[in-house]
Amino acid sequence: MGCSIRVSISLGIVCLFSMWWCGKGIGVNWGIQASHQLPPETVVRMLRENGVQKVKLFDADYAILKALGKTGIEVMVGIPNDMLASVGGSTKAAEKWVAKNVSEHISSNNVNIRYVAVGNEPFLETYNGSYIQITLPALYNIHSALIKAGLDSQVKVTVPLNADVYASSNDFPSGGDFRTDIFQPMLKIVKFLNDINSPFTVNIYPFISLYTDPNFPVEYAFFDGNASPINDGGTLYYNMFDANLDTLTHALQKNGFGNLPVIVGEIGWPTDGDRNANIEYARRFNQGLMTHISGGVGTPMRPGPIDAYFFSLIDEDEKSIDPGNFERHWGIFYFDGQAKYPLNLGTTNSGTLVPAKDVHYLEKKWCVMKPSARLDDPQVQPSVSYACGLADCTSLGYGTSCGNLDARGNISYAFNSYFQKNNQLEVACKFPNVSMITKTDPTPTVASCRFPVMIQPYYESAGLRFWCEQKPLGLVSVLVLILLTIL
Ligand SMILES: *[C@@H]1O[C@H](CO)[C@@H](O)[C@H](O)[C@H]1NC(C)=O
Ligand SMILES: *[C@@H]1O[C@H](CO)[C@@H](O)[C@H](O)[C@H]1NC(C)=O
Ligand SMILES: *[C@@H]1O[C@H](CO)[C@@H](O)[C@H](O)[C@H]1NC(C)=O
Ligand SMILES: *[C@@H]1O[C@H](CO)[C@@H](O)[C@H](O)[C@H]1NC(C)=O
């Protein structure tokens, strides 16, 4: 009962706040490809304590949406690419998706869903065109389903696209246009978004440019104005972000959609797994972006506020490393909700990130290489390969956070990663004759390297999570809310 009142009062305050804040501030991408996730309530509390007003999800996880209910936080839910064919191929499937993953959460739990992301970078070249024909029908069907549900004015549809859907013919923003091989499908999507008053969503990655092109001018990736600017017919560009966004603006303008709103769906910098992925660069990039955005200046072609979502909130240790070892390290928080570096979002009193509270760790135990084991023991190499194949060794290697470990440190890191990922099960530290469990923290004095202890696995424990939401005081809550709003 007491709980119910508390929820309502804080809800009232958030509602009042969100009237002033609505649509402002930075958003975050909340992905869940992690072996050990923090409970959704813990993450939502962290979002609120950091003043984050917008989150973008990659699907429509029930527990996460439940936890976002009644917080006022704006939510973009996502339809994964592998569902595009079904919702694009059947209006019934699209209606079911909207009923279950949008309407129900709005009506029964007051989740502030504002967007449906239809697919995630479906035109990426690595997909070989698999989703090109099905994306527009999916977009169309979901929009129709939203109309039918009476939600189309509140919930907009969009398609988060990789910035490679457009290119420049002259290496300057002014040469921007949609990629020739997908020109027609892109035009149709843009026209449809324009017709229904929905935004274009683009993901922009200066880090990837630096990663793939060793000659890329490093300073041009950042916002400090230290790069020699690019002169596009008299318009100067001091950073890649502005130039990239304006390449899109030119592409839209050229095709008659110069006023289509644009959301930056993903933007960020990873902290590990590559020589250019480190804490210093990530902090510099993300803080620079914050300052750039909060100034409200916009880009040369599009002055004004920029709507953007950080990629990402928390590290995900089960992401595919096909794009590179950095892929598991995009978080501004580690897997356990601890901040990686100070970052001022302009929304907290402390002027920096607030870490997750009440995080439950496993015991302080690690799996390491036995001091008595020899480096040339024939068991060592296969054990390391096995551990790294199933756990996460992306912090080893040239230029990474644990890249300076010696051979023994390397081996211990791999063993420990496997052991922690398997919830410190004793059998997960039984590499024949070469490993042992220790309670002495093996974290080396090597500056940046961490030998983590895993957090407790999170299971959906309905009982505990939902007791708070029994609403014996439903009417009182509403009155408190109305009162607070009037005051
Ligand atoms: C709702 O979304 C979830 C998560 O993406 C998905 O697994 C489920 O199939 C969706 N429900 C319907 C009815 O389409
Ligand atoms: C794309 O094509 C390449 C080569 O033709 C193939 O190796 C790869 O598996 C394909 N990817 C997908 C997602 O179909
Ligand atoms: C275990 O390691 C010790 C010391 O390195 C070695 O003498 C012994 O032969 C090893 N046993 C097995 C089963 O590999
Ligand atoms: C540690 O492991 C990494 C990645 O497997 C490797 O590149 C590096 O050479 C190893 N270092 C030593 C000293 O064995």
TrEMBL record:
<keyword id="KW-0336">GPI-anchor</keyword>
<keyword id="KW-1003">Cell membrane</keyword>
<comment type="similarity">
    <text>Belongs to the glycosyl hydrolase 17 family.</text>
</comment>
<dbReference type="GO" id="GO:0005975">
    <property type="term" value="P:carbohydrate metabolic process"/>
</dbReference>
<dbReference type="GO" id="GO:0005886">
    <property type="term" value="C:plasma membrane"/>
</dbReference>
<dbReference type="GO" id="GO:0098552">
    <property type="term" value="C:side of membrane"/>
</dbReference>
<keyword id="KW-0449">Lipoprotein</keyword>
<dbReference type="InterPro" id="IPR000490">
    <property type="entry name" value="Glyco_hydro_17"/>
</dbReference>
<keyword id="KW-0325">Glycoprotein</keyword>
<keyword id="KW-0326">Glycosidase</keyword>
<dbReference type="GO" id="GO:0042973">
    <property type="term" value="F:glucan endo-1,3-beta-D-glucosidase activity"/>
</dbReference>
<keyword id="KW-0732">Signal</keyword>
<keyword id="KW-0472">Membrane</keyword>
<dbReference type="InterPro" id="IPR044965">
    <property type="entry name" value="Glyco_hydro_17_plant"/>
</dbReference>
<keyword id="KW-0378">Hydrolase</keyword>
<dbReference type="Pfam" id="PF07983">
    <property type="entry name" value="X8"/>
</dbReference>
<dbReference type="InterPro" id="IPR012946">
    <property type="entry name" value="X8"/>
</dbReference>
<dbReference type="GO" id="GO:0006952">
    <property type="term" value="P:defense response"/>
</dbReference>
<feature type="domain" description="X8">
    <location>
        <begin position="365"/>
        <end position="451"/>
    </location>
</feature>
<dbReference type="Pfam" id="PF00332">
    <property type="entry name" value="Glyco_hydro_17"/>
</dbReference>
<protein>
    <recommendedName>
        <fullName>glucan endo-1,3-beta-D-glucosidase</fullName>
        <ecNumber>3.2.1.39</ecNumber>
    </recommendedName>
</protein>
<dbReference type="InterPro" id="IPR017853">
    <property type="entry name" value="GH"/>
</dbReference>
<keyword id="KW-1015">Disulfide bond</keyword>
<keyword id="KW-0611">Plant defense</keyword>
